[in-house]
Specification:
The chain has helices spanning 2-18, 28-42, 47-71, 81-109, 115-118, 121-146. With 149 residues, it is an all-alpha fold. The longest helix is centred in the middle third of the chain and has 29 residues, at 81-109.
Amino acid sequence: MQKLTLLLCCAMLTLGAYAQDGDWVPENDQIRAQRAAYITQRLNLNSTEAAHFWQLFNEYEAAKEALKKSFRTTTYRPSTEAEADQLIQRRLELDEALLRQKRDFYNQVKTKVPATKLVLLPQAENEFKRDLLRQIRDRRQQSGRSNGG
């Protein structure tokens, strides 16, 4: 576990060095590395659990994004009741499909990761998002002060 955490932290630091050019916009790879380290630590995953978890989690995230993309529509303000009803039905279908994917993900992961650890995942994801937004806000405020603002 310590080796995995150390490896993830090194990856974060390496990627973090590229974001030090003043215009701080985190790269997706950097965010993914930070997220992986945070969630791995928060769920207290050992190396075997982490390998299994992240393989399935990355597949789940990719499938979720593909599903959302397939349901995207250009009509957000329908002009008729029929269009509005159709849009609502599509959103409900998407919600159902996403829920099925989430169930499949949890059923696959819990074969190698205890449910007592998996139950912490939603909270860990929310904490990470909150921390990331705070970091971005703090860096923007610091850059605003250093630019005379």
